[in-house]
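Re: that backbone. Tokens:
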């Protein structure tokens, strides 16, 4: 099987100039420049900020004020875990654009 038949990377010298810089992509169209895309701090950003506040302020305060006789193991394991998972999911959701 030839390496170009498997759909993987194939080096094409014509896509590079003499200095080694890429002149065009393999697909033929250049990717959009980051400055030309819509990357404003909108409601998605504020949602991530809210999750950061929940994870780093509300959850530790809940652990601090959790009554010791009401399942302290739950407070030390679950109270930090759930906001951390929600923060991770929100961060991925907030940084991906359709």
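Recovered sequence:
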């Amino acid at each position: 099987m030839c390496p170009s038949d498997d759909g993987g990377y194939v080096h094409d010298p014509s896509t590079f100039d003499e200095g080694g810089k890429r002149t065009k992509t393999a697909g033929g169209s250049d990717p959009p420049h980051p400055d030309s895309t819509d990357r404003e701090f909108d409601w998605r950003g504020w949602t991530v900020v809210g999750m950061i506040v929940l994870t780093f302020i509300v959850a530790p305060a809940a652990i601090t004020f959790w009554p010791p006789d009401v399942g302290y193991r739950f407070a030390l394991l679950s109270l930090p875990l759930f906001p951390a998972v929600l923060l991770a999911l929100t961060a991925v959701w907030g940084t991906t654009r359709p």
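The mean pLDDT is 79. Residues 36 and 92 are 21 Å apart (CA to CA).
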